[in-house]
Specification:
alpha+beta; Serine Threonine Protein Phosphatase 5, Tetratricopeptide repeat; 4-stranded antiparallel sheet; 9 helices
């Protein structure tokens, strides 16, 4: 059989067809490669989820912190400190102080002092005990002893806390009162020059009375000048008590006030000192009135002495009452009442 010769046209067509086939096979292979390539090579690593452990064979580089994943940062919890129980001596101290306060409010200042001295034996340098002693002495009219206690607190300095401020205020108040008293010059007998009567130290005695909200007596010693002949009819002694209402308004008291001379009538003949006793009695309100009663407490007093309508001497506790209610130098018809 004769051999058929292949022409150039046929060879060219076969070559073109073969190139087309190779091109298609390459495109399919590239598409397959891109689709099934491992995700770790084309996607960023995922952050581990809280509570899910990563597989041991999973190699994740630079894991994203929890804060950067948008989750709240854990808040550290501090365990509460254990509550400190007071010691037996501290508990006893608090009990004695509370007992002393209650006794003092009832007017039993003597027993209150006993409780406070027992507390002072447990803690000798406790400012709270010393301040309660000072307050109790004040209620008993023992001003000098009270000031000794306040000064001992003041000497403690800032370590006494709020009691240092209270002592500082009390000392300044007494100094102001002394300055007010010294404004009226006294002679060697303690009487203002030109006057025939003068006041000595006033004391206050608390009295226990279950029917009274507060009951006490002022002892007001009134001294005459040497060789002075006192006309009792011309002696006027004014004693004003003041209460504080709702802890802000100072007003004249509505309590019952009674006067009694130790020697009746006073003459200043056998002795140059006569004592006027003035009782303050604020009764307890009944149950019905207590619901609507105002919060009224005793605040202080002012004492003025006149002879023949001329001011002889004056006292006040607290001394600020002298500034709030200054005395007239001469009595008129209205002020003598």
């Amino acid at each position: 059989m004769p051999r058929q010769r292949v022409g150039k046209t046929f060879i060219l067509a076969i070559s073109i067809l073969g190139l087309a086939v190779l091109f298609q096979v390459g495109a399919v292979g590239l598409a397959f490669f891109e689709r099934y390539h491992p995700l770790a090579e084309i996607e960023p690593p995922l952050a581990p989820q809280p509570g899910i452990a990563a597989p041991k064979d999973a190699a994740v580089e630079n894991p994203t912190p929890v804060e950067q994943a948008g989750l709240p940062k854990p808040t550290p919890v501090t365990p509460p400190l254990p509550k400190r129980e007071p010691s037996a001596s501290e508990a006893r101290l608090a009990e004695l102080v509370e007992d002393a306060r209650a006794l003092r409010e009832r007017g039993d200042t003597s027993t209150a002092l006993t409780r406070l001295r027992e507390a002072q034996a447990i803690f000798p340098n406790q400012a709270i005990v010393i301040s309660e002693l000072a307050i109790t002495y004040e209620k008993m009219g023992l001003t000098d002893k009270a000031m000794e206690e306040w000064r001992s607190i003041y000497e403690m300095g800032e370590s006494a806390g709020i009691y240092f401020s209270a002592a500082d205020a009390k000392i300044k108040e007494v100094e102001a009162q002394a300055q007010a008293s010294s404004a009226m010059p006294k002679d060697t007998e303690g009487i203002q020059p030109g006057s025939v009567l003068g006041l000595e130290e006033i004391t206050q005695d608390e009295e226990a009375d279950p029917t009274a909200q507060r009951k006490f007596s002022l002892k007001i010693p009134l001294k005459s000048a040497p060789n002075a002949k006192i006309d009792v009819a011309n002696v006027v002694i004014q004693v004003f008590f003041y209460d504080i209402v709702d802890d802000k308004d100072v007003v004249q008291t509505n309590a019952a006030v009674n006067y009694r001379w130790s020697t009746n009538p006073p003459t200043w003949q056998e002795d140059d000192v006569e004592i006027l006793n003035v009782e303050y009695l604020q009764p307890q309100p009944d149950a019905k009135a207590r619901r609507n009663a105002e919060d009224r407490k005793y605040f202080g007093y002012v004492v003025r002495v006149y002879y023949k309508k001329e001011l002889q001497d004056m006292r006040a506790d607290p001394v600020t009452l002298l500034k709030q209610y200054p005395p007239p130098l001469t009595l008129d018809a209205d002020s003598s009442k």
